[in-house]
C-alpha cells in the first residue's frame, strides 16, 4: 500500500517555485505554484477518494516553507513525528512521509526551484564587506587596482602613494599586504563595480568628498603598469659571480646573473613565483625536476634550487625542503583537523582504532600509500588535481599532503571490519548523506550519533 500525493485545485499559470519529488521513480512529482497549497493523497492510483494530508505555505524568505499536518494520522518530516494540526518548517532537501512510518507510504523530497531573483539576492548577500577593503586605508576600495603576481587589491590613490615611497627608498616594490615583489599593477573594473554596489547598499561606508578628492589626487595608475626594479648598490651577491653587463640591474633569480647547472636565464625566460617563500625561479620544461605540486598546480622552488646545488642566501629566497617533497619522505604524527570533513567525533574513532590495532598513524598512512602506489584504491574522490598521476615518489606541498591523508584515512575506515572498530562505533547508524552531510558541521549531536564515514545514499553526491 502506498499513498500518492497530488496538489488540490486546478493548475494555474503561476511559476512553479517548489516540488515534492517522489523518491519512487514510478510516481510523478507534485508541482507547487501557489504560496499556500493543500496536498491530497490517494490510497491506490485507481482510488477516487482523496484525502488532505498536509498544507504547504511558502515562507517570506522564499527559500523555505511551513508544513501543517492535515491528516488524522501523524506524518514524518526529516524523521520527526508531526501530529495532526501541528506545523514544522521545511527547507530544500527535507524529506516528507505522509504517514507515521516509512513502510507503506511514499517518501517525498521538498525541492525549491532556482529563480533568478533568489540567485541575485544570494549573490549580494555572499559578498563580505571585509573582503572589499583596502589593507592600507581599511576602507572600501576606491578606484580599485590589482597587483600581480599576488593579486591583492588596493585603492588607486593608496597604492600609488605606496609605490612612490617604495621607489624612493627601496630597490623593489613589495605588496603592502603580503610583501611579495610586485611586478605589475592595473585598474580592476570588475571589482570597481562591486565596490560601487556595496556603497549603494550601505551608504554609511561612503567616504567624504574631501577624502575622495585627496585619494584621486594621489592616483597615478591610469593603465596597466609594469613595475621594474633597480639595483641596490649596498646589497652584495656573495654567492654569485655577476657579469659586468648585468651590473645595475636587479635580477629576478640567481640564474639570471650566472650559469648554474648548465642553465642561465635570458631576456625571454619566464619566471615562476614560489608559493611558499615568494622567491623566483625560471619556468623550465627541459628538465624532470618538479616545479609544481601535482595536487594543486602551485609553484614551489625548493626541489629545483636543491638540484642546482644552491643554498639559501640573503638576496634570493629558497623554500625549505619540508614545504615540498615526495610523499614517501613525509612523516606524520597527528591526524589533521580536516580529516573526515572536520568531524572531530569521527577523527576520535579513527585515532582510537589505530591505537587499538597497536599501530601508529605513520604506520597506517605508509600502508595505505603502498596500496595507493599499487593502484588498489579508487581515486575518484581523491581531492588532488592530478589524482591519476600521484605516486609515492610524487612531490606535493603540505596542504595537499593533508588532503591525501584525509583521503587515505577515509579508505582505512570504510575498509575496517566493524568488529575491529571501538565498541561504541558499530552501534551508530549510517547517515543518509554520509561524508557529504552538511548537518554534521553545525550539529554536534548529529555529528556524534550517526556514522558519517560512509557513502551517501541520498542527495546529489550519491
TrEMBL record:
It is found in: Nucleus. Its main location: nucleus. Gene3D superfamilies: 3.30.40.140, Zinc/RING finger domain, C3HC4 (zinc finger). One of its GO terms (biological process) is protein ubiquitination. GO terms for cellular component: nucleus. One of its GO terms (molecular function) is ubiquitin-protein transferase activity. It holds the Pfam family zf-C3HC4. Keywords: Cell cycle, Metal-binding, Nucleus, Transferase, Ubl conjugation pathway, Zinc, Zinc-finger. Residues 134-179 form the RING-type domain. InterPro entries: CHFR_Znf-CRD (IPR040909), E3_ubiquitin-ligase_CHFR (IPR052256), Znf_C3HC4_RING-type (IPR018957), Znf_RING (IPR001841), Znf_RING/FYVE/PHD (IPR013083). PANTHER family: E3 UBIQUITIN-PROTEIN LIGASE CHFR, UBIQUITIN LIGASE PROTEIN CHFR. This is RING-type domain-containing protein.
Amino acid at each position: 500500500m502506498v499513498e500518492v500525493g497530488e496538489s488540490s485545485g486546478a493548475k494555474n499559470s503561476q511559476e512553479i517555485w517548489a516540488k515534492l519529488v517522489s523518491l519512487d521513480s514510478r510516481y510523478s512529482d507534485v508541482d507547487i505554484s501557489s504560496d499556500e497549497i493543500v496536498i491530497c493523497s490517494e490510497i491506490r492510483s485507481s482510488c477516487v477518494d482523496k484525502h488532505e494530508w498536509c498544507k504547504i505555505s511558502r515562507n517570506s524568505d522564499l527559500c523555505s516553507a511551513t508544513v501543517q499536518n492535515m491528516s488524522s494520522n501523524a506524518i514524518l518530516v526529516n524523521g520527526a513525528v508531526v501530529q495532526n494540526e501541528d506545523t514544522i518548517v521545511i527547507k530544500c532537501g527535507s524529506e516528507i512521509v505522509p504517514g507515521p512510518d516509512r513502510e507503506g507510504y511514499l517518501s517525498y523530497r521538498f525541492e525549491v526551484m532556482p529563480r533568478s531573483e533568489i540567485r541575485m539576492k544570494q549573490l549580494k548577500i555572499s559578498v563580505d564587506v571585509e573582503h572589499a577593503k583596502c589593507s592600507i586605508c581599511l576602507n572600501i576600495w576606491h578606484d580599485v587596482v590589482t597587483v600581480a603576481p599576488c593579486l591583492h587589491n588596493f585603492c588607486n590613490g593608496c597604492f600609488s602613494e605606496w609605490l612612490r615611497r617604495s621607489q624612493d627608498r627601496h630597490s623593489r616594490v613589495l605588496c603592502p599586504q603580503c610583501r611579495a615583489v610586485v611586478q605589475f599593477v592595473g585598474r580592476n573594473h570588475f571589482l570597481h563595480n562591486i565596490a560601487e554596489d556595496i556603497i549603494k547598499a550601505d551608504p554609511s561606508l561612503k567616504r567624504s568628498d574631501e577624502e575622495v578628492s585627496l585619494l584621486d589626487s594621489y592616483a597615478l595608475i591610469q593603465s596597466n603598469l609594469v613595475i621594474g626594479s633597480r639595483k641596490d648598490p649596498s646589497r652584495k651577491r656573495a654567492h654569485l659571480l655577476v657579469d659586468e653587463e648585468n651590473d645595475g640591474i636587479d635580477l629576478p633569480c640567481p640564474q639570471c646573473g650566472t650559469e648554474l647547472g648548465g642553465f642561465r636565464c635570458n631576456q625571454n625566460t619566464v619566471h615562476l613565483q614560489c608559493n611558499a617563500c615568494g622567491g623566483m625561479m625560471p619556468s623550465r620544461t627541459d628538465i624532470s625536476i618538479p616545479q609544481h605540486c601535482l595536487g594543486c598546480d602551485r609553484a614551489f622552488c625548493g626541489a629545483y634550487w636543491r638540484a642546482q646545488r644552491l643554498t639559501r642566501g640573503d638576496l634570493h629566497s629558497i623554500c625549505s625542503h619540508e614545504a615540498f617533497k615526495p610523499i614517501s619522505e613525509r612523516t606524520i604524527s597527528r591526524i589533521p583537523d580536516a580529516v573526515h570533513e572536520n568531524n572531530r567525533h569521527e577523527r576520535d574513532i579513527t585515532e582510537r582504532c589505530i591505537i587499538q590495532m597497536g599501530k601508529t598513524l605513520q604506520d597506517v598512512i605508509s600502508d595505505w600509500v603502498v596500496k595507493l602506489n599499487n593502484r588498489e584504491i579508487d581515486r575518484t574522490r581523491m581531492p588532488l588535481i592530478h589524482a591519476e598521476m600521484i605516486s609515492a615518489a610524487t612531490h606535493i606541498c603540505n596542504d595537499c599532503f593533508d588532503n591525501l591523508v584525509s583521503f587515505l584515512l577515509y579508505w582505512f575506515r570504510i575498509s575496517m571490519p566493524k568488529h575491529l572498530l571501538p565498541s561504541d562505533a558499530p552501534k551508530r547508524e549510517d547517515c543518509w548523506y554520509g561524508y557529504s552531510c552538511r548537518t554534521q558541521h553545525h550539529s554536534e549531536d548529529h555529528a556524534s550519533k550517526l556514522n558519517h564515514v560512509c557513502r551517501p545514499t541520498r542527495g546529489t553526491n550519491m
